[in-house]
Amino acid sequence: LRAAGRSPRPLFSPQAILAAQRRGEDVETSKKWAAGQNKQHFITKNTAKLDRETEELHHDRVPLEVGKVIQQGRQSKGMTQKDLATKINEKPQVIADYESGRAIPNNQVMGKIERAIGKLRKDTSEIMTPFQTCPGV
Questions:
Q1: Cα separation of 41 and 33, whole Å?
Q2: Tell me, what's the pLDDT at 124?
Q3: Alpha helices, DSSP H only, in 6-137?
Q4: Cα atoms in the Cβ-side hemisphere of radius 13 Å centred on 42
Q5: pLDDT attached to residue 9
Q6: DSSP secondary-structure letter at 88?
Q7: Which residues contact 69 (CB under 8 A, 6 or more apart)?
Q8: Given this model, what pLDDT does residue 56 score?
Q9: What is the DSSP letter of 77?
Q10: For labelling, which of 3, 8, 20, 31 has a CA lying 20 to 30 Å from the CA of 48?
Q11: What's residue 45's pLDDT?
Q12: Are 132 and 59 in contact (CB under 8 A)?
C-alpha cells in the first residue's frame, strides 16, 4: 500500500506561493474583505436599484440642518464628538460624518443619537422625519 499523496493545504507565506507557482501547481489567491473589522451598519438602499436609475446616481445624505441640530444638542450637553460616539457605541468619525452631512442616514444610528442628546425628531418640529426603508431589503 502507498501513503496518501500530499493534500492541498493553504499556503500562507509569499515564499511558499512562489515555490508552488514555480512547480507549476495551481495557486488560488483570495483577499479577505473587511477582515478584523466590526461591520455593523450596512447601507439599506438597494445598490442595484441605484445602478438602474439614470437621473440620481447617489445615496441620500443627512441634511445639513440635521447635522447642525446634532451638533447643537451635543454641545448643549457639554459633550465632544468622541464623548457622544462612546455613549452610543459608534466611532467618532460616524458622529463627524453626521454633523457635516456626509453620512448616509441609518435609522439605528439616528435613534441612538436621539436618545443620547434628546433631540432631532421630537423637539425640532419634525426636522428629521423617519427614514423610508426599502421594501424587500
A1: 15
A2: 42
A3: 14-22, 47-52, 64-76, 81-87, 92-100, 107-117
A4: 8
A5: 65
A6: T
A7: 119, 120, 124, 127, 128
A8: 58
A9: T
A10: 31
A11: 60
A12: no
- Residue 100 CB neighbours (<10 A): 13
In the chain, what are the domain boundaries?
64-117
CATH for 64-117 is: 1.10.260.40
For 45-54, letters b (16+ CB in 10 Å) and e give beeeeeeeee
The phi and psi torsions of 96 (rounded to 5 degrees) equal -60, -40
pLDDT (0 to 100) of residue 132: 46
Place of cell 464623548: 83
DSSP 8-class letter at 26: -
pLDDT tens digits along 69-99: 999 999 999 999 999 999 999 999 999 999 9
Say which residues have a Cβ less than 8 Å from residue 113's Cβ, sequence separation at least 6: 70, 84, 88, 95, 98, 120
CB-count exposure of residue 79 (10 Å: 0-12, 13-18, 19+): middle
Number of other CB atoms surrounding residue 70 within 10 Å: 25
